[in-house]
Amino acid sequence: MSKVKAGNIEIGMFIMHNGSPHRVVKKKFVSPGKGSAFNRTKLQNIETGAILEFVFKSHDVIEEVEVESKQMQFLYKSADGAVFMEPRTFEQAEISDKVLGDAVNYLVPEIKVYVSFYEDRATAVSLPPKVEMVVAQADDAIAGDRSNAGTKPVTMETGLIVQVPLFIKQGEKLLIDTDSGSYVSRA
After folding, report:
1. pLDDT, tens only, 41-98
2. Which CATH number do you get for residue 30?
3. pLDDT (tens digit per residue) in 111-123
4. What is the CATH number of the domain that holds 163?
5. Which domain holds residue 142?
C-alpha cells in the first residue's frame, strides 16, 4: 500500500478507509474562499458494496490499496452473475451481479473488459467507452409523431432500452455509450 495526499484522489482509485478497502465512485474538489480545500467523495466498500459519502481535507494522507487489473472476455451469463475468461491463460472467473452493477446491460458476446481484483476477489468491472449492440426489438415510427423530438425507445440484445432516431430498425447494429447508456451512431 502506498500513501497518497487526499487532494490527489481520482475516480476509480482504491483506498483504505476505516479499515476496509473502498473504490472512489465520485469526487468533487472544492476550494472555498476561506479555509482549506477539500475533496467531497462517494466511496463504495469493496467487501459489502455499501456506498458512503466522506469529505477529505486536501492535506489528509490516505492509503491507496493495491488492486490487480486484468483484461478479460465475457463468456456467458450465469444464474447470479457472469463468467469471464482471461484470453492468455484461459482462467475463468464468475463475477456477481452485485459487482457488475449497470455493466450487466452492456455484456454482449466476446466483449473485452477490465476486471479489478483485490485479494483474488473481483471488485469492479470497467467497460470500453462504447459498445456495439444489436437492436432486438424496435417499433416502426409513426408518421407525424414528433412528441418526443424524433426519437423512439428500442430494446437492445441485452434488454437495455435506448432512445434512438426514428429511422433505426430491428436487427441494426448500434454504438451505445457505456457511461450514459445513450445512442451514439450506427455501427
Report:
1. 888 887 777 788 888 888 888 888 888 888 999 999 888 888 999 989 898 888 888 8
2. 2.30.30.30
3. 999 888 888 888 8
4. 2.40.50.140
5. 130-186
Same domain flag for 79 and 95: yes
Domain count, the chain: 3
**In the chain, where do the E strands start and end?**
2-5, 14-17, 20-30, 38-45, 51-57, 61-64, 68-78, 81-85, 92-96, 112-118, 121-126, 130-138, 151-156, 161-165, 173-177, 183-186
| Cβ–Cβ under 8 Å, residues 155 and 161 | yes
Residue with cell 480545500: 37
Q: How far apart are CA 28 and CA 63, in angstroms?
A: 19
- Smallest Cα–Cα separation from 172: which of 158, 185, 153? 185
- Amino acid identity of residue 80, one-letter, is D
How many angstroms separate the CA atoms of 67 and 84, rounded?
A: 18
The string of DSSP letters for 109-122 reads TT-EEEEEEETTEE
Q: Please, which residues bridge with residue 14 across strands?
A: 23
Q: What is the identity of the amino acid at 174?
A: L
